[in-house]
Amino acid sequence: MAAPGAAAAALVQYVVLRGDLGRPPRCWPLGAVVAQGCHAAVAAVHAHGRHPDTRAYLEAGGAMRTVVLEAPDEAALTALAETLKQHSIDHEVWTEQPENVATCLALRPYPKDQVHQHLKKFKLLK
Fold this sequence. Notes:
Layout: H1 6-9, E1 11-18, H2 30-47, H3 52-59, E2 66-71, H4 74-86, E3 91-96, E4 101-107, E5 110-111, H5 112-119, E6 123-124
Parallel strand pairs: 1-2
Antiparallel strand pairs: 1-4, 1-5, 2-6, 3-4
């Protein structure tokens, strides 16, 4: 028998931020970049809140696992969003307004083995 919370422990929410936002010529402040990831993560959980994996993830409380990855630019983020859409992977793209700039995307919580193959080319955000 699995330990309590074992299913939730296997769940991970991936957040993919554009790395170019914090570098020249854009040079967004760190807080602004972090806020983009927060917006996308909350949007994904809200949009898919009724999914059993999302509910289990939220019930895990302090055991939630989130991985923040870096897309090099908007083109890479857009390409990832299209790949996820083609494979029916639930996600939300955060578009900053009024600039209308796609800054980040977040998947709803998933078992890592179901989505990792689409994210393995992205490195941890630094």
